[in-house]
User: Fold this.
Amino acid sequence: MVLTLRHRTAAATAVLAVSLGCAAVVTAPAGASSGRAMAAAIVDPALRTAHGTVGIVVTGTTAAERAVVRAGGAITHELPLIGGFSAKVPASDVPTIAKVPGVTTISLDRPTHVQSAPGTYNNLPSVYKKVTNGSKLASSGGNGQGINIALIDTGVTALPDVAGSIVPITPDVSGLGQQPCLNLAGDGTCNDLYGHGTFMAGIMVGNGSASAGKYVGMAPQAGIVSVKVAGATGASDVSTLIAALQWVVQNQAVYNIRVLNLSLGTDSTQPYAIDPLDYAAEKAWQAGIVVNVAASNRGPAAGTISDPANDPFVVTVGAIDDKGTNGLNDDVLPNFTGRGPTASDGLAKPDVVAPGAHIVSLAAPGASITTQFPSTMAAPYRRGSGTSMSTAVVSGLEAQMLSLQPLLTPNRVKYMLTSTAHPDASSDLMSVGAGIVDGSAALSAPAGVANVGVAPSMGTGSLAASRGTTDVVLSDSNQTVLDASSGDLTSTLSDFTEGASWFGASWFGASWFGASWFGASWFGASWFGASWFGASWFGQPDSAEDYGASWFGSAWYGSWDQ
Assistant:
């Protein structure tokens, strides 16, 4: 699979598709220079070996459509959201179409498969706060007060349910005053243009103001430190995630960050002991932050735990379907939730599970997910399913626990959750780990800490390998493909230094994460490309449940109910 990123400085990226049930798409920056417009379009490398008639997604001016028709192709769908269209054309004509002035990008239109099957569905909204006993913690005064959760995601739109929880930050960059997020996405706004981050924020800290208290998140008095790493297409590179993690570590004390939510991941199989992304996640753990990572939505096969969820230190969260009831006897294990053991190290994962099916949370107005998958619920709410959602439930639960016992360490929190979890939905430890979390029982856990004797990551491995099966394409004149043999360029086209300088003290200084991540060429740039692991819809049909539309193995582990 190949990803494409257009950045004024030709940055490398990994991305999520925003499709109309048919395509992995790419979009060009609105501010592209006139000189670049005359150059050949960026072409998905997958098309270079295609034969016969192929489906493509094209962005550009109306001249692009005329060029396709002249080449003997047929327009199949207009895609105004991305300023383009899909078409069927002879593969041999793709190079010719790419040279037409006004054509900016051409991507392979990959097949999709809906993760649903005929049957009678039980799509009752989850009662996740009751099932995890977060409601009991709330009745005891544990509502997340005094605790901030870092959310590395697609941004948070300040809807009434979460606006009061967004912690203002001051990026250490000349000319940037107080902001509602740290923005590494390059789109100039802290709003959620994709729709994933706002949904996670609602699960964790939503106060239910738009529903008269019906849809209240886990810890409505906790704060959200929003670190935005992706824009309207959900695009983000591993190097950007690492930069975000470094900022969180550097600013942990400044913003009282006690919990970190990572509802994302790659399919990398690099051993955790050398993987840079695992290493960065561990640095947050060592800084006193409880790091929660989504197992993945690539189940039901074994060995489908994502990176950095494959790290032994972090809390890796899988998903169960609570069927909308408080009891556990009717819970089931969705096919989508990632299973252990970890692919490279054979470690038992996930650590725990939480409700992750038919979760009600916030729909960011105008965001890609909101537009592509309209909800039948009254705004601003919608439902979603995935390990993204179950991870956010656990992050919120931990904020509740920490608000009642603020001296808890990450290793203690993990032990408390795993030692008191209940068997649920499956007897397979590689599917549910210790079981479903119970916040109330966790506060009375026996003495003990997690991760005793576990060897930490050294981070000396390859950044390219952290990206997994993703290849990336630069928007230079040669459309250079970056893969495992192409070196370790970051999203700012700087070298990713490995070895002692990577895991030494300099990693936390301005020498690597500094003003270059916030330069003029970064803000205002656009991200675009195909799906992180391909454009297919994830998972296998489940004859009993419809968990909505999603992307196979997508970086953001969610699907979207109607």
Observations:
- The two ends are 29 Å apart (CA to CA).
- The chain has a mean pLDDT of 77.
- DSSP finds 15 helices and 19 strands in the chain.
